[in-house]
Task: structure prediction
Amino acid sequence: MKALVLTAPHEFAIKEIACPKPGPNEVLCRVRAIAICGTDAEIIEGTFAGRWPKAYPFVPGHEWAGEVVEAGEVARAFGFGPGTRVAGTSHSGCGYCRMCRTGRYNLCLNYGREDLGHRQYGHYTQGAYADFVVQTIKSVFPIPDTMAFDVAALCDTASIALHSVKRPGIEPGDTFVAVGSGGMGLLTAMCARALGAARVLVVGGGKRLERARGLDFETVDYHDGDPVARVRALTQGLGADVAVDSAGTKESVGQAIRMVRKGGRVAFTGIPKEPSSIDFQKVVLEELDLYGVRANRNTMEEIIPLIADGRVPAAKLITHHFKLADFGEALRTFNERVDGALKVIVEPG
Result:
């Protein structure tokens, strides 16, 4: 089969490699669409080399959709037969540790131990930028026949957005702020609206913020001045009820905290590459609740129907399609935000 193979940081090529075989609780799937993720770009650059991936050669990619072509005995018993349409996600916990048994498999205590059953596809376990991929049935989820594969490839990202919004919680009538106008930021805004937020503000800039306006979100352009002051002005000086930071910069972390009211909730999905300064006096005296977000857990089955019925209109974030053979151009388009690129879809075959 053909696959995108990394041989060193920022060294990759489309190569012919052996097709993997599924184990008893695994499925072999034909990949129909993969969405480029910001983590993919970092892995390709070698930012996390030694961890993601542990070694080269390596096939990245974890936001994908396709159909089952072969299933192991246990997988078949659970209903995963040839032709089953599925969307994949990256985490597959060991299933036995305390975190897995309490439903927090994204925090599996045996992370990185493939010998104990843990997998993180496209990170340190071989991924989906290929004609075929093998994953455990804990990490693939059936999708409706009416859902296009390119849209289904966004389910993993959208499930993280949903987890990001569920962590701090949305009460009916809340004012929500998405700090960051990229794909993740817009998906958190969509999820907050779907869960009952009355007002949804998006902080960002450029063509991505224009897309947010097109989705009928209120917008705050950070190029026009202090975004914290603007959010507070739009909320009668009180601040928002909930903020989710997907920008992941040292500035955005502090801004998200300063944007919420007394008793507000803030979740952090973006991962800052530099240390951030937090005003803990505000956190303590105003009883703010802060939530870290590690990928997703138990939200794939929830987000799929929300996307299918249009309450989370993820399809509107797809801006480009490329063939796997043109991955280099697809990656450039994503990294350089060509023509306001948001979700860039890569299609094998």
User: Anything to note?
Assistant: Residues 220 and 230 are 7 Å apart (CA to CA). The chain has two domains: 2-153+313-347, 160-292. The mean pLDDT is 97.
